[in-house]
Write a structure and sequence with these properties.
2% of the residues lie in helices and 51% in strands. It is built from two helices and 48 strands.
Length: 496
């Protein structure tokens, strides 16, 4: 099913009496549009498809254009509004409708707050509205939060996002303003997104760029937007949900210095430190650690206990992470294993037998590559590093940097530059075959080891690829289109 965007318009129109006018779907070439029965154009013929859904008060039209769907309505209580003699154009966009994909269902909302739900096999059904507010758009394309009769806010916003239950996110030049379902500001900072806490009632995580905050929808507390250490890991973000236990403290940066706060913003350690890491309760419990974090002050690193007091000073240049039952620390240009009980350092990193290299995720949230002796083969500046194998058994790595994937050998030498948005190995045969994404759809390609690039074999027309066979003459993969059609893809790019 195609992804549906938050959208569009009210097209006011016909009644159910004998003088009713109708909105008619018309076709020009292979494109579709919408007109009144007396010929007034409502939608130009730019749409790939338009289908109609009838309800008691409204007719809905879902128009698909370039893979995105917009929902329009046609009121059933007036005829005269399209009378050409009134010199009034009522086809201007007045009230926004929502069409969104929710649990694989399309949700439509009319201007009175009535909701309609359409499932693949269930048709349309009315849903009870939970809010008396909706979203309106004026003739200049600006949005406001409205009741069925008036705007509650000014028409000041470039967009109003209603995807988060109980909130309106109103877009300004500086980010989204968060309103609750009473149209009161719920968080006093412009944000990029919010995430509902799964473990804490009425608690949300807010983010904007590198800064994050926490707030309560009941207005009991909020923390300002600050630079948290490794926020996606510490907040355990999964789409729009945070699975993290927030009954803990966090290391945050303010004014160029690090300090420690709790989830409600109370300062626990002052913002005077050069660096600071607070460990997850899982690691503390698993290893029965008598300390909860490590801080750097005046060039010295110290573990801190549960009362946020000095516990143990260690002579290191940099803290990397907890890795298994050790800490990985840096001294000079090399890494060492720090025993978390005795605080002695060694080169015993706990690699599996035969393992010579390993991608390591630092507590800053970035990946690097080290060898069994602690040599840094790739610096800790990658979003992710994964290890793969060729048909001959040799290893290579796919690393993501600034959202683009590249390929490296096991010494950390770059073999393919970071030009590709998404590389997933599909098969290792005569060549290494990959699924490559353009951000929307995927294609099949292979790694040209001589030219140090990925050769694209197909267009970006598939939803996903599935490995099929490495047998010569058989398709290497099956490509599934957005329409659900399976296509055989061969090593030379032939598709059938």
């Amino acid at each position: 099913m195609k992804k549906l965007l938050l959208l569009t318009a009210i097209i006011t129109g016909f009644s159910t009496n004998t003088n009713a006018q109708a909105a008619l779907i018309y076709q020009e070439g292979n494109k579709f549009g919408l007109k009144t029965d007396f010929g007034k154009e409502l939608l130009p013929a730019n749409c790939d498809t338009i289908f109609k859904i009838e309800t008691a008060e409204f007719d809905f039209y879902v128009a698909d254009e370039n893979g995105s769907s917009s929902m329009y309505s046609y009121l059933t209580d007036k005829r005269e509004i399209f009378d050409e003699t009134t010199n009034t154009d009522f086809t201007e966009i007045r009230v926004e409708y929502s069409a969104d994909l929710v649990n694989w269902s399309i949700i439509g909302i009319d201007k009175l707050g009535n909701k309609f739900k359409h499932q693949d096999e269930g048709g349309w059904a009315a849903l009870k509205s939970k809010s008396k507010y909706n979203v309106g758009r004026d003739y200049n394309g600006k949005y406001a939060i409205c009741t069925s009769t008036e705007a509650v806010t000014g028409y000041d916003y470039d967009r109003v996002n209603t995807e988060h239950a109980g909130f309106f996110l109103a877009l300004t030049d500086s980010g989204y303003i968060v309103y609750n379902d009473k149209v009161e500001i719920a968080y006093p900072f412009a944000v990029r997104n919010i995430y509902k806490s799964k473990k804490h009632t009425e608690t949300y995580i807010a983010s904007k760029g590198a800064k994050w905050g926490i707030f309560s929808s009941s207005e009991e507390f909020y923390t300002p937007l600050l630079e948290y250490k490794n926020p996606k890991y510490n907040f355990t973000i999964n789409k729009d949900i945070s699975n993290a236990d927030l009954n803990r403290s966090f290391s945050v940066k303010r004014g160029g210095k690090w300090g420690v706060i709790d989830a409600q913003g109370k300062e626990i350690m002052p913002f005077i430190h050069d660096d600071a890491y607070m460990f997850k309760q899982y690691d503390i419990n698993l290893h029965q650690l008598p300390f909860i974090g490590i801080v750097k002050l005046n060039g010295k690193w110290k573990f801190i206990n549960k009362k946020y007091k000095d516990y143990k000073e260690v002579e290191i240049d940099n803290w990397i992470c907890i890795y298994g039952n050790i800490g990985i620390v840096q001294k000079g240009a090399e890494l060492f294993a720090l025993d978390l009980k005795t605080f002695e350092t060694s080169k015993k990193f706990g690699f599996a037998d035969g393992e010579k290299i390993a991608p390591i995720k630092s507590d800053n949230g970035m990946f690097g590559l080290i060898d069994e002796n602690g040599k840094i083969l790739m610096p800790f500046e990658y979003e992710i590093i994964t290890l793969d194998h060729r048909e001959d058994g040799t290893e290579y790595l796919i690393a993501t940097k600034n959202g683009k994937d590249g390929i490296y050998d096991e010494t950390g030498k770059m073999l393919v530059p970071h030009k590709y948005r998404h590389l997933i190995q599909i098969a290792s045969a005569d060549k290494e075959y990959f699924e490559i994404s353009n951000g929307k759809l995927v294609a099949l390609g292979y790694w040209d080891t001589e030219k140090h690039k990925i050769i694209i074999l197909t267009d970006y027309i598939y939803e996903y690829l599935t490995f099929e066979s490495t047998t010569e003459g058989k398709p290497i993969a099956i490509g599934t289109t957005p329409e659900g059609k399976d296509v055989k893809i061969y090593r030379d790019g032939k598709q059938e």
